[in-house]
Amino acid sequence: MLEDTKAALLDLDKVTVFFRQLEDECLVANSPVCYQVEGSRQALRVTLFLDSCHFSELPSRLQNGGSLKLHTVLFTRALERPEGMSQQDYAAMEEIQQRTNAVSLEKVKAYYRRLRYSYTASQPSRGVPHQHSGSISPERESSARGVA
């Protein structure tokens, strides 16, 4: 079951979502959502058609043809050992869960780094010196403050 879920999420990683303003009535009768799907499992493009009211609420980047890329992660944890499962099988299942969680955590960290970089790269420099996250020795701290 876990392996099936992981495979489905890998497919979702290949989905890109675009938005377009709805020009006519919805293509699907009695449905509040109009969409178009193109591509294959290697690259899937989903276009959501929104009425003018909702489309105008989107950021201009998305109104002008920008897209959203899905980034999926899976964190898992069994609540208890299933009845009848041997300790060896349970240990193997826990190992798979730990690897799955480790991979997902790395994906979240990588996404955060890219997001943080793109955010800081798009911000104008305010002349503020870069903050150092390491420790500073008392001597360097005193000299940095102008204390002898």
Automatic annotation (TrEMBL):
<protein>
    <submittedName>
        <fullName>Phosphatidylinositol 3,4,5-trisphosphate-dependent Rac exchanger 2 protein-like</fullName>
    </submittedName>
</protein>
<dbReference type="GO" id="GO:0007186">
    <property type="term" value="P:G protein-coupled receptor signaling pathway"/>
</dbReference>
<dbReference type="GO" id="GO:0005085">
    <property type="term" value="F:guanyl-nucleotide exchange factor activity"/>
</dbReference>
<dbReference type="GO" id="GO:0005096">
    <property type="term" value="F:GTPase activator activity"/>
</dbReference>
<feature type="region of interest" description="Disordered">
    <location>
        <begin position="122"/>
        <end position="148"/>
    </location>
</feature>
<dbReference type="GO" id="GO:0005886">
    <property type="term" value="C:plasma membrane"/>
</dbReference>
<dbReference type="InterPro" id="IPR051832">
    <property type="entry name" value="mTOR-Rac_regulators"/>
</dbReference>
<feature type="compositionally biased region" description="Basic and acidic residues">
    <location>
        <begin position="138"/>
        <end position="148"/>
    </location>
</feature>
<dbReference type="GO" id="GO:0023051">
    <property type="term" value="P:regulation of signaling"/>
</dbReference>
